[in-house]
Amino acid sequence: MSTSHLVSGETYDRLDPKVRARARYLAHALDADPDDVTQEMWFGIMVKARRDPQFLQQTDAYVVRAGELHARNQVRKAHSKEATERRRLGHRIESLEADEPDPLEEARAADDTEDTAIANILLDSLLATLPPRAACLVQALARGHTRKEVSLALGRDASWATKTVTRQVAPAWARLCE
Fold this sequence. Notes:
By secondary structure, the protein is mostly helical. It has helices spanning 3-6, 9-30, 34-51, 60-99, 103-110, 114-129, 132-142, 147-153, 160-176. It has nine helices and no strands.
């Protein structure tokens, strides 16, 4: 049975703004992607509509709430998996930091060229302009950790590091290099 048989265009048009609005609120509350939450809400609504043909005849608030409950459970499962992965990787990152010398410190200690001195000044300036988590991200990336490892170690979802580099680090770097 296709989804077009489950939800008519009229029903979809009526529910979609409400589902999207609730998904944005829920995504903010759960620190999740609004599009993913919207998709999970619609999936929950479809599953429920498949089981109970009269489900979509309920009030819009009831239908949206059922979708919200499904999405909330799915996001919590995802966060639980990420927390397990974070704990597993957290020990690995701590052991890496203890065993490996810091390349930033090594470069600063060498300080035998003008380029190294300029790079150190730029890096220090960049770190000073960034929020603490973004600065920690830059330092961990410089040590050779992956974006996913850093995100999970800092208690964020796996895409956080990529978003932070795009939204905070790259613009700050561009301003410094002007």
